[in-house]
Hints:
Elements lengths: L15 H15 L6 E2 L11 H14 L15 H12 L11 E4 L2 H7 L10 E5 L3 H10 L5 E2 L4 E2 L2 E5 L17 E5 L11 H14 L2 E5 L25 E6 L1 H4 L7 E4 L5 E2 L2 E2 H12 L5 H9 L3 H27 L4 E3 L5 E5 L6 H12 L1 E2 L1 E2 L10 E5 L4 H12 L2
Parallel strand pairs: 1-15, 3-6, 3-7, 7-8, 8-9
Antiparallel strand pairs: 2-10, 4-5, 9-10, 11-12, 13-14, 14-17, 16-17
Helix pairs in contact: 2-9, 3-9, 4-5, 10-12
The chain binds D-malate.
Amino acid sequence: MFQINDNYQKLPGSYLFSTIAKKVAAFSEANPDKNIIRLGIGDVTQPLAPAIIEAMHKAVDEMADAKTFRGYAPDLGYEFLRKAISDNDYKARGCDIEADEIFVSDGAKSDSGNIQEIFSTENRIAVCDPVYPVYVDSNVMAGRTGTYDPATEMWSNVIYMPCTRENNFVPEFPKETPDMIYLCLPNNPTGTTITKAQLQEWVDYANKVGAVIIYDGAYEAYISEDNVAHSIYECEGAKTCAIELKSFSKNAGFTGVRLGYTVVPKELKCGDVSLHSMWARRHGTKFNGAPYIIQRAGEAVYSDAGKAQLKEQIAYYMKNASTIKSGLQEAGFEVYGGVNAPYIWLKTPDQMTSWEFFDYLLEKANVVGTPGSGFGPSGEGYFRLTAFGSYENTVAALERIKAL
Ligand code: MLT
């Protein structure tokens, strides 16, 4: 008789955003006349930039001609895209990351879930609390997290680094020594970030204790302050302790297109074993390459026209962020984030729990957000709104919230 991977049975409930989608669908069915504004999941709403669409059309035409048709993509990514990434995201910032240290994928969600596979199940992970649920859930599936305590909503073998208003949502070095440290900066869900000097301290710490940092830079394009690093490789010593995950979803609107990449520096080793070789082996075995059309779209992100158009798109979303932030402040809410990230993190009013506020906002204002407790126990009493809606919907949502 076959057996299943029992670790899946340990997962409490369903994936956060699936639960929210189900709740919203039920509300919508019961209230078909209500115009619901969705500021929950961080999904973009603006169309792909013209330079990207043009590149995709051209690539589609190439696929229609036997002379330019492409079959399987190189499993680690086309050279044209890996070089564009290396030149623009790294060398232009003084980071010595070569094209062959970049592994193109179908998005950072897959990479952030998959990367743990190359590490021992004996490793202890450290995560921020609150945290993007994929990091913890994928480690639960691998059997790395111990047992779940429903009372504390914590796993026995996970090191939690609480990020609260008391520490400005900045994680502190844990008392116990972790083997793998997940950092998402600028942060999802709190919308806050740390300075380059603070990030350097994490790099120094990881090198000292022999930990690896899994650095999720999905929101890098939203950084507006000068003292914040755009890549962990801006920090000295990061190439011996850090893997960086990047996405095209938030900077270029690829949530439905799917493209991302992971950097595994050649210098990153465990004893004599190269993690670069391990990830290449894993990627080559389990992944057949992101589609040619999509990789050409990714290349267009780095063209002059693409860069100019995307700068406008980011500014559009960040205008939403400041509209949400100032609107909530006027309404008397305690608000964080929204300066270097497209997320606003607010304290729920009147001692409401995160889910109570979710229901209240959905029923009374027909606005969907994300309950902070869905990201971890320290998220209880907080709530996340995203700046990825249309400007009109964002303004309308704020009007409704102010009128409550
Ligand atoms: C979020 O809302 O936290 C993100 O959109 C989820 C994701 O990027 O997968």
